[in-house]
Amino acid sequence: MTAQLSAPIGIFGGTFDPIHYGHLRTAFEILQALDLRELRFMPAGDPPHRDTPWLDAKRRLELVRATVAEHPGFVVDDREVRRRGPSYTVLTLEELRAELPDTPLCLVLGMDAYRGLATWHRWHELLVLAHLVVAPRPGWDPPMTGVVSELLADRRVEDPAVLRTVRAGKIFVQHVTQLDISSTEMRDLLAAGRDPRYLVPDTVRALLCATQSSSSATPKR
Ligand code: ATP
User: Fold this and answer.
1) 180 CA to middle of ligand 1, Å?
2) Interval 181-196: pLDDT, tens
3) For the whole prediction, is pTM greater than 0.90?
4) Which of 11, 74, 194, 200 lies 20 to 30 Å from 28 when distance is taken between CA atoms?
C-alpha cells in the first residue's frame, strides 16, 4: 500500500569518535541516492561492543551537531546520548517505529558494521523494525559465509524503490565513494600531534585541536 506510507528516513548510528568525512560523504550520497526525507545522525551514548570512547558522549554529540547543523536533510537525534544504559539500536528503532508508524526506516551501516550484525542485541528484530542500507567500505568485503551472508542473500533488493513500498525488512547495498577514513585514524593522528585537515570538516578540526591542546587524554585505538 505505497500511498499510505510516508517517504523513508535514514538512521545513521555510530560512535562518531570523532565524526569524519567517511561518515559525512556516505550519509550525503545515501540521502541523495535514496531520496530520503531526512537522514538522522544518531551518536551512541554508551556504545556496546567497544571500549569506552576517547571523547565523552556530550563532546561527540557536539561535534556531530557542529557538522550537520547547516546541511538540508541532515538531522541530529540525541536520544541515545540522553537514554541511560547501553545504546542498543533495537531500542532506538522501537522508539522510532512508535513515533513514525507509517514511515519506512532505513538503518544505514557500513559493511564492517553489517558483518558484525549477528552480535547485536536482539539482532533478529532489527529487520522487523527497519530496512538496512549497507555502504561498502574499503577493506571490508561482503560476508560470504554465516548468518549475515544468508540474511543478505535472502533480504537483498536491487531496486531501491522497494524501500518505499514497505516499512521494513529489506536490505539494499548502496555504492558510495570509497573513502578509507576511520575515527581510529583520526585519534591516532591527533595522538601523534598530526593534523586531521581535509579528513574532517574544519569546524570539527578546530574543536578537536582545542580538545587536544586542553586535554592530557591519550586517544585509544
Ligand atoms: P572506529 O575507527 O572508532 O571504529 P569508525 O570510523 O568505524 O570508527 P563509527 O562511528 O564506528 O566510525 O561508524 C559509524 C558507522 O559509519 C558504521 O556503520 C560504519 O561502518 C560507518 N562508517 C564509518 N566510516 C566509514 C567510511 N569511511 N565509509 C563508509 N562507512 C563508514
Assistant:
1) 10
2) 999 999 999 999 999 9
3) yes
4) 194
